[in-house]
Design a protein that fits this description.
Layout (H helix, E strand, L loop, with lengths): L14 H14 L3 H14 L16 H13 L1 H15 L9
Length: 99
């Protein structure tokens, strides 16, 4: 079963990509929008459905999620790495933050 839904989207693209689109558009006589939509449609068509690998997404209970988060928080090496990464990403020192 194929389902079609129309949505509008605004996409920001790098200047170099826009210039390549303009070049293709002038060579083919198509609009930039037509070329971009065709490229996007090809890209989306290649994405496999969620159950393509033989398993469907699994739901977790609140208890399972809590146990998983507790196990991750108990991994001090991983937590230190995450705090370092977050601190450098946010430009903040998270060393004094409490869990």
């Amino acid at each position: 079963m194929t389902r079609s839904v129309n949505h509008e989207a605004a996409v920001s693209i790098p200047l170099g990509m826009l210039q390549r689109l303009e070049s293709v558009a002038s060579a083919t006589g198509e609009s930039i929008e037509e070329i971009a939509l065709k490229a996007l449609a090809r890209y989306l068509a290649e994405i496999p459905p969620p159950d393509a690998c033989g398993s469907k997404p699994r739901s977790f209970t609140a208890e399972e999620l809590e146990a998983g988060y507790q196990a991750m928080a108990a991994d001090e090496e991983r937590e230190a790495e995450a705090r370092e990464w977050c601190g450098s990403y946010l430009g903040e020192d998270l060393a004094n933050e409490t869990r």
